[in-house]
Each structure stands twice: as C-alpha cells, then as structure tokens.
Design a protein that fits this description.
Shape: elongated
Number of strands: 0
Structural class: mainly alpha
Radius of gyration: 27 Å
Largest sheet: none
Number of helices: 8
Helix content: over 70%
Length: about 210
C-alpha cells in the first residue's frame, strides 16, 4: 500500500472510532437537557417577585439597621425569597449588616452574585455549542461507511448509517435549542434578580443615609 492509502485508511479508522463516544455523549446531553427543561419549569413556578414587598422590606431593614437593631433587620431581609439567588444574596446582606464593614462587604456580595450567575449559565453555553457539534460529528462519521456501502451495493449498510446520521443531527439540534432557550430565559431572570438586589441595597443605604 502507498503512503496515501495508509493515511486514508488511518483517518477512516480514527474517525469511525469516534462514532460510539459521540452517540453516548449525545444521549447524555439529551438526558441532561431534559433535566434542564424540567428545572426551568420548576424555577418558573417557584419565582414570586413582588416589588412592593421588596421596597417595604428594604426600607424596614434600613430603618432597623439605623437604630442598631441589626438582628431584626436581618430577619426582615431573610423573609423576602422571590428566587434562590435573591434568597442567597439576602442572607449575605443580612450577615453584612451585623458587621461594621457593610458598605465594603456589599460590593463583594454583588460581585460574587454576578459571578455565581455567570457560573450557573456556563453549562448552558456549553450545551448550546456542544449539542450541534456532536450532532454534526454524528452526521459526518457514518457518511464514510454509508458511501462505502453504496459503492459495494450494500443497501442495508447505507440505510443504517443514514439513520444514525439523521438521528444524531436531530438530537444535537434539540439539545442546542433547549439549552439556548434556557440560557436566554435564565439570563433575563438573573438580570432582574441582580437589579432587585441592587435596589434593595440602595433602599437599605438610603434609609441609613437619611438619618446621618
């Protein structure tokens, strides 16, 4: 065999060897994307945002902290739980109220909240890219055996490989679509949550500043 034929044979072997890992990866991604869809629905039903309550609690916490009733101010903040991220932020803010470094710590809390939001969105960003990429790989890899089957008149091999190619394409696109939709929706939710957290902090600070 010539060097060219050996190279082609090696490329064919290496490329086809990725078929089963690609299929396994797609199936795992598909199962994970269904879990993401379910968690998205759960998060939607569990979100209870009320701006009036947020304003009332923020002003109350600011007034209580101004009179050195930090325990009561912390309890007021912890009572507002419109979402998981806001509940975590309120816990951190309530702990910061009980220290003398509130204005310093609050900036760190905001930065950490933004980082946690970005971290939560990272798997979705990966899924948006990984799903179609694996779907494309699952489409192209079986095309080699399919063309060989066609040249040899093996219609069954051609049909089987084409079924794999089309199925992996569909699954990859479904995974990418679910991840993209979840990423867009959660990005909007997280921006709203961050805005609410900053608003609550401004209310707390405003209540404190009015009396200084």
């Amino acid at each position: 065999m010539s060097l060219y034929e050996v190279s082609v044979e090696l490329l064919y072997i290496f490329s086809t060897a990725f078929l089963y890992p690609v299929i396994a990866g797609l199936l795992l991604l598909f199962a994970w994307s269904l879990a993401v869809f379910g968690s998205l629905i759960y998060e939607y039903t569990s979100r209870h945002r009320t701006l009036v309550d947020l304003e009332e609690i923020g002003l109350k916490a600011g007034e209580l902290s101004r009179t050195s009733r930090t325990k009561d101010a912390s309890a007021a903040l912890l009572s507002y739980k419109s979402s998981r991220i806001i509940a975590q932020a309120m816990l951190q803010i309530s702990l910061a109220l009980e220290t003398n470094l509130f204005h310093i710590k609050i900036e760190k809390i905001l930065q950490d909240t933004e980082l946690s939001m970005a971290k939560a969105l990272e798997p979705l960003r990966i899924g948006v890219k990984a799903g179609p990429i694996l779907g494309l790989m699952g489409t192209l890899i079986p095309m080699g055996p399919a063309l060989i089957g066609l040249s040899q008149g093996d219609i069954k091999s051609l049909a089987d490989n084409l079924v794999i190619a089309f199925a992996t394409t569909v699954i990859g696109l479904v995974v990418g679509g679910i991840c993209y939709a979840a990423m867009v929706i959660r990005t909007r939710w997280y921006r709203q949550d961050l805005s609410d957290i900053e608003y609550a902090i401004d209310l707390i600070r405003g209540g404190s500043d009015e009396t200084t």
